[in-house]
Structures are given as C-alpha cells and as structure tokens.
From TrEMBL:
GO terms, biological process: actin filament organization; apoptotic process; cell motility; phagocytosis
UniProtKB keywords: Apoptosis, Cytoplasm, Membrane, Phagocytosis, Phosphoprotein, SH3-binding
Localisation: Cytoplasm; Membrane
Gene Ontology molecular functions: SH3 domain binding
Function of the protein: Involved in cytoskeletal rearrangements required for phagocytosis of apoptotic cells and cell motility. Acts in association with DOCK1 and CRK. Was initially proposed to be required in complex with DOCK1 to activate Rac Rho small GTPases. May enhance the guanine nucleotide exchange factor (GEF) activity of DOCK1.
The keyword Membrane is assigned to this record: yes
PANTHER family from the UniProt entry: ENGULFMENT AND CELL MOTILITY, ENGULFMENT AND CELL MOTILITY PROTEIN 2
Cited CDD domains: PH_ELMO1_CED-12
Protein name: Engulfment and cell motility protein 2 isoform X4
Listed GO CC annotations: cytoplasm; membrane
Length: 709
C-alpha cells in the first residue's frame, strides 16, 4: 500500500553522526520536525537549527518551500539562517585575514539563498559589504568574494539599488578603469554596474559619468570578460535618453566597436555561448532601433532640403545638366522623369514619403543606393524605364515598400526579447550594414520581378515572394553580405515555387478520394512511428537553463524519461552537459502515473509568476509545465522551438493524448507523402479494373481500387 501523499521519506545528515531516516509529515510544523531531529542527536536549542538540501544549491527549507521535497531526498541539519547570518557578519568584521576570507567565501555561496539573504540584509549586511568595498583595503580573492556576495544579495530585489552611495559606484568603476585587475573582480564589477544601470534611472547617470565607452571597448579583447563588457554597453545604450543614443552610437562607431566585436568575438577562437549570442542580438536590435526616428518621420512636401534629395535622385539617374530653361517644359520633364523613377505621385513625389513607416528612412535608403552604388541604381532605373509600361518595375514604389518590409522583418523600433539569441553575423561586417542590406534586397526585388514577368497588378505578389526569399536567406545565418547574396541567388522564383510545392505537397497534390483513403490508412502507423521517436528523445533527455535575474551566471538542469517510460528523472547540473547524463546523477524523479496534465505558455505557473517585463513572446512560446499529484509542478523553458515540440509531444504521447505541435504536423505530412510516393510508384500494388463507360459531364470521376498488401 503506497504511503499517504503528505508523507515523504527523507534522510537527514549531521556531521559526525549517522544519518536519520524519517518519514516527514508535511502537515506537521517544520519546527516540530526539526525539534524531533535534534532530539535524535541530543542537540539542544532546536530553534537555532534549520534544514537544508544536502545536494545542489543547498537551499534552506522553509514552510513555503517544503512542498518541493521529494521521496528519497537527502537533507542536512544546519544552523538557522538567522544564526548563520549573525555569525558571518561578525566574522567578516574580524581582524584575522584568514578568518575573514573564509567567512566571505561562505557568504558568497549562501547569498544566493533567499531565506539567508533576507536575514543578512535585515542585519544591515549589505551596508557592511559596501563599506568594505569603499575602504579600498580588500584585494584579490577577498574582494572577489565580497563583490559576489553583494551582487547575489542585491539580485533578490529586497533592497533598492537607489540606496547605493556615490563613493561605492566610484570604487567599482575604478576597478573597471584600472589596467591590471583580476578577471574575477572585473567580471563582478561589470555585472554590478550593469545591474545599477538597468535597475535605477538615477544610477544610470552616475555610472555614465564614471565609465566611458572607450574603456569598455578595451575589455573586448579579453574573452573572459567580453560578455560582461558588451552587456554593460547594451545597458548604457538601452537606458540612455533619446537625445544621447545617437551621440553614443557615433562614439561606438568612432571607437570601431563593430570591427572589434567581429574580430574578437564573432570570429574569435571560442564558440559563442548563449549569453554572448543574446548580448549580440540586443546590440543588433538597439543599433537598428536608431532608425526608428527616420522611419516614423513623414516628409514635409514644403521642405526644400528634403525635396532636394528627390531632385538629386532624378539628377543621378537622368543627368539633369541639360534641363530645359522654360518652367513649363521643366515641370513636364520632371513629371516624366518621376514616372520613370517609379514614384506613385508623378507630379509631387514627396507625397510618397508621407506614410509612416517607412517615412524618410525609405528616401535615405534610395539616396544611399544612388550615391554609393550609382551604377546599380542607374541600371535598375533605366532598365525598367525601357520596358513595356505593363512590365516595368516601379523603383520608387518598390524601394518604399521594401524598406517597410525590412523594418518589419528586423523588428525596427521594438525592444529586445529576454529569451532571444537571434543575431545575424553579417550585420557586424559593415559600418553601413542596414543600407547595404537594402541595396542587396532591392536588386533581388528587381530580379524577382523579371523572373515572375510581373505587371503592376502583381506588385503585392512579388513583395510576398521577396519577403519569403529574404526570410529564408536570413534563416541560413549568412556570415557576410556576400554570403547573403549567394543564398539569395540560390532562392530564385522558380526555387521558391519548388520549395512551396514540396512543403504543401500533401495538402494540394493528393486530394482525390483514393489518395485520401490511402492517406487515412497510412496515418496511424506514421503517428505511431513519430510517437516512438518522441519517446526515444525523452529517454535521451535534454538540458534546460534556469532563467534567473542574471543570465550570464547560467544554471542548468537535466530531465530524461526512464527506459521503461514510467519515471521522469531530473536534477541540477553545474554546467551544460556535452552528452547524455546518467540516471544516477539526477536526484529527483516523478512517477508518470502521478502526472495529471501538461500546460503551455501563459497557463504555466512560472509564466504567471514572472514580471511583465520578462513575460515576452519568445519565452512564453517555449514554456511548458508538468502538473502532477499532489498539486505539484515541474516547470520548463525549452532552449528552442524544436526541443519544445519534442518535449510537449512526447509528454502528450506518454499520457495517451494527441500530439499537436507544428513539428508533429510537419513530420506527419512529410512522412506520409514519402510513404505514399513509395507505394504509388510500386505499380504492382495497384489494380486498375476495367474502365467504366465515359461520363462526359463528370470527367474527374475515378474508380481506382488500391491493393495495400
């Protein structure tokens, strides 16, 4: 007979004594259980003790967290968090160097525990650590442990960053500005400054006064701290007032930030980890967001300086040196030229730029193409002006719509997503990457227009094809603009049609009744094949990242299904594993029979608890939770969409429910199409009876009988 749901069997350790094996009644007060354990070892003063996990982060167990204890968990009797905080506070203020170092080392480890952190902060512990830093008497390991503890304590959000003193900021900034500082101190100093900037508007200004971008860029050559340096640059960029961002961008350009990142990070001799990829993505987004002002600026038709840009486009294309002298003749000629340039409003093309987005950004792109790639610009304009009217590709209209499309694809004006690592290396290979990207894409549009033999009525169809070509090419992550051109060269209109046909073959090409019948016969066995593949992947297991306040200090955990499909094993890891993790290293488990359901997205408990800032679309789309008896949850955030589909499908299959992810639908269609092709090609398995009399009014009627043996 199974034990009651409120009883968990645990082992409790105490140094120098045999472990106690007890049945913990979760309905009893924790203090009562601790008193009983202390009595077992003849320890007095049970109120001075607490229980902690023996493995992993070794967190303190409280009345709120005790529900997470599972059968077979190993616990440890320890001094209470209040007593531990008091002792450590006394030791870090002692005169003995060795004793102080050991105390700070222990404090750095314990500070990650929210229960301990609360007690330590209530005893003015953060103020004590701040004074130790401000004194400037700590160096090396002692300073590194002090900064680690300070950062861990502040990350709990119990104390406001606004309380930090200016002298503390100056001291931390001093470590960043010094030429020879230990790497561990630099890492923590940069992380502290980043947190200050992100969490306090007033501290942003103070940090910005103490730290220059040039000093941060100087740290990018050091692979141990370059992620921290870019993170602080991004934080300063993100929190800068609007009038300061363009100035900061100019400074970054003058300091050659892009080329330094390209050479020391993207093309460095180390693989790019998840946090660095995220920071590069953030920098990419913030850089493109500088275009938002021009994107949302309407052209003023009465502004002569803006109209002069359009005159310049006309001059470069048609060499306006021999303009007619008469006003009426000039006006008629300009109207003709503006029509050849492809503007919608031939009389006053400035009106074409009054819609936002893309606003003036489209005109900026066109002028860049005309000046920097003049031959290409002239070729596109003259080539289209010499075509028949119905087949000409209107350059002006295309450039405006293409700019709007590129803004949508690259999400110009949107804030970075917390869980996104989607940066494009090619945008770090050129100082004018946005403009060059436009120039590549406008040539693609012109080429696709010709391949489609399009007319003005086909404009929207052409733009849809071009969007697909660009998004498919970007998904291949070209390393340079030249590679992008090669990818796009391979994505001709005919190739896009072939890809489309291949992807929807099962939807459009096999709709006759016999084929539908064949599909229905095949589907169950294909579904079973997919189900087994999903379960096999769950048995191999996957690594998941714990999302915390600071993404750089990554913590991982691993989950896998037992080979008999009866138990989910999981546990914390110190680092991301390179292969399969043995069951013995996974200390926690959930019987599959206890699982009640699987929920996704906003229905997940850990998504409901997250702040609005972090509750972004990217993370929501990767979140899922296992709900199991009694009222417990195991929360996941998948590393990518593929793993999300594998795990949610696998868990549904495990519970005997329908697998409904996009991946399953795609796999099902692909495998069924392959199997149907194989069977239909095997003509010996097809029996065609005598043809029925012709029925002219129903030429599409078929009476084929298929033998599936």
């Amino acid at each position: 007979m199974p034990p009651p749901a409120d009883i968990v069997k645990v082992a409790i350790e105490w140094p120098g004594a045999n472990a106690q094996l007890i049945e913990m009644d979760q309905k009893r007060p924790l203090s009562s259980i601790i008193r009983e354990v202390c009595d077992g070892w003849s320890l007095s003063g049970s109120e001075q003790f607490a229980l902690r996990y023996a493995d992993g982060p070794q967190l303190y167990i409280t009345e709120q967290s005790r529900g997470e204890i599972k059968n077979g968990t190993i616990l440890r009797l320890a001094i209470s968090p209040g007593r531990a905080a008091r002792q450590l506070l006394e030791r870090i203020q002692s005169h003995g160097i060795d004793a102080r170092l050991e105390a700070l080392k222990e404090l750095a480890k314990l500070s990650a525990d929210p229960t301990f952190a609360t007690e330590f902060i209530n005893m003015e512990g953060i103020g004590t650590l701040a004074r130790l830093v401000e004194s400037g008497t700590h160096f090396g390991e002692m300073l590194a442990f002090t900064l680690t503890a300070f950062l861990e304590l502040m990350d709990h959000g119990i104390v406001s960053w606004d309380l930090i003193s200016l002298s503390f900021i100056k001291q931390i900034a001093g470590y960043v500005n010094q030429p020879m500082v230990d790497v561990s101190i630099l890492q923590r100093s940069l992380a502290i400054l980043e947190s200050m900037v992100l969490n306090s508007h007033s501290l942003y200004h103070r940090v910005a006064q103490e730290i220059t971008v040039g000093q941060l860029i100087g740290h990018l050559s050091n692979q141990e701290i370059q992620t921290y340096a870019i993170a602080l640059i991004n934080a300063l960029f993100l929190k800068a007032p609007e009038d300061r961002r363009q100035e900061m961008a100019s400074t970054l350009a003058q300091k050659h930030l892009r080329s330094i990142i390209l050479n020391h990070v993207i093309r460095g001799n180390r693989p790019i980890k998840a946090e660095m990829a995220h920071q590069l993505y953030v920098l990419q987004v913030l850089t493109f967001n500088l275009l938002e002002e021009r994107m949302m600026t309407k052209m003023d038709p009465n502004d002569q300086a803006q109209r002069d840009i359009i005159f310049e486009l006309r001059r470069i294309a048609f060499d306006g040196e021999n303009d007619p002298t008469g006003t009426e003749k000039r006006k008629a000629m300009y109207t003709k030229d503006y029509k050849m340039l492809g503007f919608t409003n031939h009389v006053n093309p400035a009106m074409d730029f009054t819609q936002t987005p893309p606003g003036m950004l489209a005109l900026d792109n066109m002028l860049y193409l005309a000046k920097v790639h003049q031959d290409t610009y002239i070729r596109i304009v003259l080539e289209n002006s010499s075509r028949e009217d119905k087949h000409e590709c209107p350059f002006g209209r295309c450039a405006i719509e293409l700019t709007r499309m590129l803004c949508e694809i690259l999400q110009v004006g949107e804030l970075p997503n917390e869980g996104c690592n989607d940066y494009h290396p090619m945008f770090f290979t050129h100082d004018r990457a946005w403009e060059e990207f436009f120039c590549v894409c406008i040539q693609l549009l012109n080429k696709t227009w010709k391949e489609m033999r399009a007319t003005a009525e086909d404009f929207n169809k052409v733009m849809q094809v071009v969007r697909e070509q660009i998004t498919r090419a970007l998904a291949m992550k070209p390393a340079s603009l030249d590679q992008l051109k090669n990818k796009l060269r391979g994505l001709s209109y005919s190739e896009v049609l072939r890809l489309r046909q291949s992807e929807r073959m099962s939807q459009d090409d096999f709709q006759s009744p016999p084929i539908i019948e064949l599909r229905e016969r095949i589907q169950p066995e294909i579904l079973e094949l997919i189900k087994q593949q999903r379960l096999n992947r769950l048995c191999e297991g996957s690594c998941f990242r714990k999302l915390g306040n600071r993404r750089r200090q990554e913590k991982f955990w691993f989950c896998r299904l037992s080979l008999n499909h009866k138990v989910l094993h999981y546990g914390d890891l110190d680092e991301s594993p390179q292969g399969e993790v043995p069951f013995e290293l996974l200390s926690d488990k959930i019987p599959v029979s206890d699982i009640k359901s699987v929920v996704t997205g906003k229905d997940c408990p850990h998504m409901k608890e997250k702040s609005a800032l972090k509750q972004n679309k990217e993370v929501l789309e990767l979140a899922f939770s296992v709900l199991y008896d009694p009222d417990e949850t195991l929360n996941f955030v998948a590393p990518n969409k593929y793993e999300y589909c594998i795990w949610t499908d696998g868990l549904c299959a495990l519970l005997g429910r329908e697998m409904g992810s996009d991946l399953t639908r795609s796999d099902l269609d692909t495998l069924i199409s392959m199997e149907m092709k194989l069977r239909l090609l095997d003509l010996e398995n097809i029996t065609i009876p005598e043809a029925p009399p012709p029925v002219p009014k129903e030429p599409s009627s078929y009476n084929f009988t298929y033998n599936y043996s």
